[in-house]
Amino acid sequence: MMYGFPLKPPQASTISVEWDYLYYFLTALTIFFAGLIFAAVFYFAIKYRRREKNEVPPQYEGNLVLELTWTIIPALICVFIFVWSAQLFMRASSPPPNATEIFVVGKQWMWKVQHPEGPREINQLHVPVNEPIKLTMTSEDVIHDFGVPAFRIKRDVVPGMYSTEWFEATKTGQFRLFCDQFCGMGHSTMVGTIFVMSHEDYAHWLTGQLNTKPMFASGELLYEQLGCNTCHTPDGKPGVPPLRGLYGSEVHLQNGKTVTADDAYLRESILGPEGIVGYPPTMPTYQGQLNEEEVLQLIAYIKSLGPPGERKATKQ
Amino acid sequence: MSTVAVEVAPTLPEVHYLNADYGWRSWLFTTDHKRIAWLYLFAITGFFAVGGLMATLMRLNLIEPQGLLMEPASYNKLFTAHGLIMIFFFLAPSIPTVLGNFLIPIMIGARDVAFPKLNLLSWYIFMLAGSTFMFSVIRGGVDTGWTLYTPLSTTYANGHVLSAAVGIFISGFSSILTGLNFMVTIHKMRAPGMTWFRLPLFIWSLYATSVIFILAMPVIAITLALIALERVFHVGIFDPALGGDPILFQHLFWFFGHPEVYILILPSMGVVSELVAAGCRKRVFGYSFVAFSSVAIAAISFMVWGHHMFLTGQSVYAGFVFSALSFAVAIPSAIKVFNWTATMHKASVSYDAPMLYAIGFIGLFTIGGLTGLFLASLGEDVHLHDTYFVVAHFHYVMVGGAIMGYLGGLHLWWPKMTGKLYPEAWARFACLLVFAGFNLTFGPQFILGYLGMPRRYAVYPPEFQVLNVMSSAGASILAIGYFIPLVYFTWSAFKGPIAGPNPWGAKGLEWTIPSPPPTNNFEETPIVEEAYAYGHEEAHVG
């Protein structure tokens, strides 16, 4: 992978080049100001060194113009860096709408990956090159962090919520994946490899996997096994709203507020102690009966039902 | 110092605070702020040695990618204990309780702090806290990292989280009482003529520190109590499996934690102002700007906690606000650095150890501060967060900054505390070793961080080994640099040449009284006419 004496990780994603520009600028700024201070300190220390034991130098107060200068110039530089870096952060926080979604569950001390097409991986992630990928992540236990230095991405993976990050790889090859948030004994072994492949290789890899049942199909199976279908049906029955068209719709809560039925809403409704968010607590909690991967499969199933009245979107 | 005084060999005063009374009771039940400073000095030197030994073992282990000495479980406990000991039992108390206790009353012309008995109580609370914490370490330690993030610390960690938390909880009360004592002392006990703008800058910075002690320490106490509630009684506060919110813990922790960082660096900034003034024989350039920058840092420090949480899923817009405020806190720090540098212009610069430490501080703190800008930058932080870049940055501030200042201060005021001189050549040599060893230890870690090596890794990929070995080599030099002063200070206390009241030709009330000072500090209450009165005839008191 990377041997010798590199000073930066590989630039393997669309954003990594821009991150490095800001890094070069900040490094140059650090060298300039540290150099300025060092030069002044050494120059003064030599030029004005104490020549006699009892010498007392001339005294003076300060200088308002100087004080204002070295307050305002750093402040302006800070504003400049702030605007630049905030723009980068905005980009890093906004996945492109056409990004392919892959699901990640962190667990002491491994990364479990599910592709919507079915294949699952542990401590590995295979992705196609030049295609935006959005990771939807959660944790089974403590806080983890999914970081890939070559892509300049990193995001905490927090239990009880979904966090997302995205990247578009620009180079094929293998890149390191680290858990960056201390997560207990095996933290430093919670590492893995990102395999960036050409489109043909990726398609080949997908079909060659053991588990080719799509996530929504696994979700549908769970939906039947757990008996969800005794109350919830795709098209609803009296007293029970339909599942079809639920995903992404507006839900009116009992307290008068309106929320969007997104991944977090569905997860909370399945696992939360109060049952379905915004409804009377008639549904029992499934906490402890489902792991995070299974919840993601159920959500994939609900999502696959599509908008009201339509037939199930066939994915394969 | 007048010309005559130089030629007459200085003598020790017949009676001073060190020989006024003998026996262990006179030390363990003392209410003399100067003796309490010694009690703290012994205690924190012990903690520094333990924390430093742990750091040495960690660096040794990291020589090999798979770990040279120990299993990851032991390594995790080591860095947790190293962080907690250094922050709560060495850095936070270091300058305030040793130099602050010794100097605040003397610098403002008082006979003692406002509440001498409370001052002694603070030390006993500190020792109780330290013992409780060390008890948890000896029983097997904690493996959560010093940040104690939930739900790892409340549900999943097997170590002795509870006794460690109790130790830190208790230590907070010691800090609160010390802060309270210092604030009241500075408000109420100043000598006639010692107006706010004649206070030494060291006093300004310790005043700002005391405010943070009083406001921030209760927050960590509450947070630790909540951890205990969840860990023992399974009350769902932070663990989502119990209905809690793990991010809430981070808000509480960093609302304390970031001001805490300024508790560690502000006193050192105050010391450096004194080192620069004494080493240059000059009033610090832009006195009021330096004084108010301490207050500004203390105020803004309470509003930047969210920059530890850019990647937790906090709103992007909250990230904008915290990033902007984090840049804002950089400005007063920059003002200080520029003013210290300007003080050296047309000065009489000494090359004695205290000034060398001040110069070292200015250099390392500048790098520490500037690299903080990388982490305050929202976008750049995504890549650097939780990597060795962060480790390097805060060690430049905490070790390169805070400890350099502490050591410089010990050298400057050692003659006042003991009446003896330390060996100057050894001190300069040790200072250079510390500076060189420090840069070799933490400089490579900036590169490691940009390469992506995460912090708190017991084992790491082989491509990071070269830089890790460099860092470990630096750490061994640094360890020697810290050990040498321990030897020559001990020697000096017994065999050092006699210092006299003002070996540096410095200004300030502490240099007008004998070394070591009498128990009551001042025979008669001094009257202050100017701060940093360099170029004025010296008034001899007592």
Over all CA atoms, what is the radius of gyration of chain A? Answer: 27 Å
Overall strand count of chain B: 0
Mean pLDDT of chain B: 93
Taking pLDDT < 50 over at least 5 consecutive residues as the criterion, the unreliable ranges of chain B are: 1-6, 538-542
Shape of chain B: globular
Report how far apart the termini of chain B are: 15 Å
Kindly describe this structure.
- The complex is a heterodimer of chains A (316) and B (542).
- By secondary structure, chain A is α+β, with helices and mostly antiparallel strands.
- Chain A folds into 2 domains: 1-43 and 95-212, Sandwich (Immunoglobulin-like); 215-304, Cytochrome c-like domain (Cytochrome Bc1 Complex, Chain D, domain 2, Orthogonal Bundle), CATH 1.10.760.
- Chain A is 33% helix and 20% strand.
- Chain A contains 6 helices and 12 strands.
- Chain A has helices at residues 16-47, 64-93, 199-207, 215-225, 263-271, 292-304; strands at residues 100-107, 110-114, 120-122, 124-128, 132-139, 144-148, 153-157, 163-168, 173-179, 192-197, 250-252, 258-260.
- In chain A, strands 3-2-1-5-8 form a 5-stranded mixed sheet, with helices on one face.
- In chain A, strand 1 and strand 2 form a beta hairpin.
- In chain A, helix 1 packs antiparallel against helix 2 (64-93) and helix 4 (215-225) crosses helix 6 (292-304).
- The longest helix of chain A is centred in the N-terminal third of the chain and has 32 residues, at 16-47.
- Chain A is elongated, with a radius of gyration of 27 Å.
- The two termini of chain A are 36 Å apart.
- The relative contact order of chain A is 0.11.
- Mean pLDDT of chain A is 89; it is low at 310-316.
- Chain B is an all-alpha fold.
- Chain B has one domain: Cytochrome C Oxidase, Chain A (Up-down Bundle), CATH 1.20.210.
- Helices cover 67% and strands 0% of the residues of chain B.
- Chain B has 16 helices and no strands.
- Chain B has helices at 3-7, 24-28, 33-61, 72-107, 116-139, 152-156, 161-188, 201-233, 246-280, 287-300, 316-343, 353-376, 378-384, 388-418, 424-451, 465-495.
- The longest helix of chain B has 36 residues, at 72-107.
- The relative contact order of chain B is 0.11.
- Mean pLDDT of chain B is 93; it is low at 1-6 and 538-542.
- Chains A and B meet through helix 1, helix 2, strand 7 and strand 9 of A and helix 4, helix 6, helix 9, helix 10 and helix 11 of B.
